Amino acid sequence: MVSVLEAVVEFDYQAQHDDELTIAIGDIISNIRKDEGGWWEGEVDGRRGLFPDNFVRDFQLSINIKINQ
Predict the structure, then answer these.
(1) Which domain holds residue 14?
(2) pTM score > 0.70 for this model?
(3) How far is CA 1 from CA 15, 26, 46, 59, 64, in A?
(4) Which Gene3D superfamilies does this one have (predicted)?
(5) What is the CATH number of the domain that holds 23?
(6) Where residue 12 falls among pLDDT bands split at 50, 70, 90?
(7) 49 assigned to some structural domain
(8) Number of structural domains, the chain?
(9) DSSP structure string for 28-65
């Protein structure tokens, strides 16, 4: 079983710098890396960047993967 951290956007955020993501309510952010200081890094719609952690609600998906050897 693999756990994947994702987040759903609860408030719109307009990027202020090139390394930030513009996010909209309802977007799902994946491949999240949590950082200290209130900013996380993740991907949405093929773009990767920073976003404020208090604009999202995070959740973990548990996925069963069958590997044939």
Answers:
(1) 2-63
(2) yes
(3) 35, 26, 25, 16, 5
(4) SH3 Domains
(5) 2.30.30.40
(6) very high
(7) yes
(8) 1
(9) EEEEEEE-TTSEEEEEETTEEEEEEGGGEEEEEEEE--
